[in-house]
Write a structure and sequence with these properties.
mainly alpha
Amino acid sequence: MELPQLKSIKEANEFSPLEETPLTLGQKLSEEKKITNEVSVSLEAEIPEELYNGMKEFICTNPQWDQYQLMSSALANFLFQNGSQDRAVTERYLNDLFNLADS
């Protein structure tokens, strides 16, 4: 069995991609927002049966919602109403507030 030959640093650098052009502030923020929007955290929690039944009923009567959106909205609501200054939390809270009013 033959092992692939290692390239010297000079050889590797010869074929490296060209340096990227610097990004404008708007492009950087856009890229950061894309990354931020893709991040999610898995959460497992025990909740009282009454809350589960209420959540299930809400989702059944509002098919545009799912359990993940509902939990995310509820968490944003709680954080916002308890003094969170995070812009993303405020944005989520307000978006959900007005989207729910439209449905």
